[in-house]
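Lecture notes, structural biology module. Today: joint structure prediction for complexes of two components.
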Amino acid sequence: MTARHHVLAIGNALVDVITTTTPEFLGDHGIAKGSMRLIPSEEAESLYAAMGPAREISGGSAANTVAGMAALGARPAFVGRVADDQLGRVFAHDIRAAGVDFTTAPSTEGNSTGRCLILVTPDGDRTMNTYLGACQELSEADLDADAVAGAEILYLEGYLWDPPAPRAAMKKAIAVARAHGRKVAFTLSDVFCVEGYRADFQELLASHVDLVFGNEHEVCALYQTKSLDEAMAEIARHACTAVITRSAAGAIVLEGGRRHVIAAEPAARVLDTTGAGDLFAGGFMAAMTQGRSLPDCARVGCIAAAEVISHYGARPEADLKALIKAKLG
Amino acid sequence: MTARHHVLAIGNALVDVITTTTPEFLGDHGIAKGSMRLIPSEEAESLYAAMGPAREISGGSAANTVAGMAALGARPAFVGRVADDQLGRVFAHDIRAAGVDFTTAPSTEGNSTGRCLILVTPDGDRTMNTYLGACQELSEADLDADAVAGAEILYLEGYLWDPPAPRAAMKKAIAVARAHGRKVAFTLSDVFCVEGYRADFQELLASHVDLVFGNEHEVCALYQTKSLDEAMAEIARHACTAVITRSAAGAIVLEGGRRHVIAAEPAARVLDTTGAGDLFAGGFMAAMTQGRSLPDCARVGCIAAAEVISHYGARPEADLKALIKAKLG
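The predicted structure, tokenised, for the full assembly:
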């Protein structure tokens, strides 16, 4: 069967609310710089009231990844839950306008559309405060098994492993994808996700996942070591391909005993690092579906990541296809 | 009585929905490049569905002006109507976080919060498609006469002269301001406003307005001439101070028979010209309240305008105060 989509991603459907701030503001509010944390509705309100004027741009980790893939010519689908409200319509508009199939029905009761309050410091570092809202109401019933079976790659966001209903949906999707011989890709998302679900994530990598993305901190946290070499030795014991991002130090791809080290793409400027990892994964998988070599997949990932950190917002703004063509042919 | 606010502005409370596009898209949708037009709810929906991924940033002409004034250290108030919905909360958050007093109650029934679909072409030119929504429900009842009486300048947006209820509110505000010896400032806003309300606008300038802002096209339209010299001769017959903006050609200030010509501030880059006129007016009036000379007021206006066209969105992002200090002391 020909794949209907190159990738079907399951993730959080969030609108980013982005403002610039100072390290002092973070300190005053007891927020660790560079971290991501989940906040309840009341804290989302009080932090929003305290923060500066903002811009709203659609986000969500896996959603950013597939928006990047669409910009590179792939055919992606996205599954995630928004509410039937203005921010939900903003999310749905933006992801569809980016060229991604998005058909998950919005919820008509319960929580409002999730949002991520992103505080960007002058060094470009982002601190994320996520109110999940409707995201956590995604359930197995929202999955179209035929769509999962018909997608070349199933891509899962580690952030969404926390709420039980979406986790069950992801487990079901994994079973469907594997039954149809599809690839399963997974992103570790964040150190706090890894620490909360270490056993689950280790088991996923050992038994269910063909391709895993994580940064060096997440991979080290997964195996409770401070040594990236030790963590790489552990992750390499699994059959899956592991892609480890290292910010300005580029990326490492581990595959069947081989190790490819790829330099980062120099960024024109670093304004807001939000989405760097998401766009890396998007570039990597888009290149995979075009049959590029693993080192070239990582190079495409690095180019996509360099574009997204040069402006506010975690979705591509430049013509990614033209950028890749100019650099890699 | 000491002024409670340096300026009290009455205008449209809009959230801008900004996307990049091509001249071909505008042509295909029969939209004149560089124009501003009002669109009904259904067209707002269909145009939004057709346009690309967007970012939402609070806008509204007079609202942008007072946000710029607050960034320059003035104490402004804003009067305008949003609905009690997510975009209304975004507007209220952003203008308050910018340092502007905003207390107009949101409407709990009727239209949703107004928005402006802004299509930016690669030359930085913006084409605006405005759904006024709740904006038009502003009425005399929303005016706090004490606040109007206590503000140094009453600033009115020509765009809002069209719907009858806000027009009545503006007329009442003018009467209150004049009764208390306050200055009344007015922006012509757009050629289509001037053409729709030429007699009203001429009468306002002749009898009720101390300071008027307009670009060369609006001023020419006001007196139905193609000659800027002729239009300037007409406008100079009124007692009020007239400030005419000319994009890259800078600005001209006409006052009591004198004419000051001010060069534009070179912009670092021109990404999105939305808000250039709004921020010019904001810089001008902020400088006035600091007692600067009229030519220096226009210089501050040019610097504020140059900042806002260097990025997407019509609210300042850089530290305007520091910019002005570096350039004018």
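Point to remember: The mean pLDDT of chain A is 96.
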